[in-house]
Structures are given as C-alpha cells and as structure tokens.
Amino acid sequence: xxxxxxxxxxxxxxxxxxxxxxxxxxxxxxxxxxxxxxxxxxxxxxxxxxxxxxxxxxxxxxxxxxxxxxxxxxxxxxxxxxxxxxxxxxxxxxxxxxxxxxxxxxxxxxxxxxxxxxxxxxxxxxxxxxxxxxxxxxxxxxxxxxxxxxxxxxxxxxxxxxxxxxxxxxxxxxxxxxxxxxxxxxxxxxxxxxxxxxxx
Length: 200
Ligand SMILES: Nc1ncnc2c1ncn2[C@@H]1O[C@H](COP(=O)(O)OP(=O)(O)OP(=O)(O)O)[C@@H](O)[C@H]1O
Known about the structure:
By secondary structure, the protein is an alpha/beta fold.
C-alpha cells in the first residue's frame, strides 16, 4: 500500500457541453485524505467519477497508483439477493477473500443482516452495505460520495473508525460531503473556487 497515490493536475470537467470547473489540483499520497465541498451541481460527483476513470476529464491529468473503489448514490447490489451473497459477488470480482468480507460486514455492524434481502434494507443499512463493499474490496483508494447520507451517529462513528484504519494502513480517501464527516485533518477542496459558471 505504501506507494498509493492519487494526483490530479489542472483538471477541468464538462457535462452536457457545459464547463463546470477547471484548474483543480489535488495530490494525495499514502495515508492522505481530502474532503470535497461545494454547492449542489458544482461537480463533486463528476470529479469523483473522473478520479475513478468513469468520466473523461476535459483538461488536465489524473494519476492513480493503486486499486480504486467507489461508493456513491448507486447501490450496485442485487436487490433480490441476501446481503452476504450480493456483497460476495463484488468480493469475488475484487479478488477479496471471505475473511475480508466478514471483516467489512463486522466493521459496518451488518452481521445480523447478512441473510436479509438487499431490498429490505433501510436507507442507512443500504449505505452501510455500500461502504462494506468498498471496505471488503481491499482497494487502496476509496472514493466516497456523500458517505454519511442516511447514517445515524453510531454508523457515522463506525465509518470514522474504518477510514482511520484505512489511512493508518497507507490507504487514501477522497470524500464528498455536505455534512461533517469523521475525517481527521483532511485536505479541504472547495470546488466553488474553481467553478466556471454558476451551479444550477
Ligand atoms: N450525464 C450527465 N449529462 C449532462 N449533465 C450532467 C450529467 N450528470 C450530471 N450532470 C450535470 O453536471 C452538473 C454537476 O453534477 P454533479 O452531480 O457532479 O454535482 P454535485 O456537485 O455532486 O452535486 P450535489 O451536491 O447535488 O450532489 C449538474 O449540473 C448536473 O446536472
């Protein structure tokens, strides 16, 4: 994990033919975290997708060293499957073993729900499941888009512990959030400072 890095240089982003922001630089090395802020529509999720390689930057360069896992508003779990089975699908793709999956479920306090069909999970339980998927992946770079949405205080504290352990192990975390997150001394990146047009 020690060589993990995520480096953005001069990133610009366009969506639907409209330039949202430009000139974004962010360098995160092993153990580094950043908190992305800015008003609705400024492009936080879009920047996350650029970091993940799911959206092409309009300008600039993205350097990634290490596997990436992202949790955003898409649950990406089969609603009809029991939670454990749905998460196992991703664990197999990510090359994660059973112990990693068990550890992630325990870390997000999901063990009592491992047989529950995903469609029956509450909003906060679904969010914890999405976070467990990232934790189990073993990826070194975590991209967390609004990870606190729907989480109660206890679950937020669990998230904080997982993030802390990940960073202590040489991981990287980039999070976007409108609410305070339990991140210790993250780099703060306010996209409003890079906006090109007024966000809708
Ligand atoms: N597929 C798309 N095609 C065109 N425009 C899009 C697409 N997806 C998002 N947009 C637009 O890009 C802009 C940025 O969206 P994005 O979701 O990145 O913002 P955000 O900062 O994450 O917002 P929020 O705080 O509401 O989550 C918005 O104006 C949105 O309408």
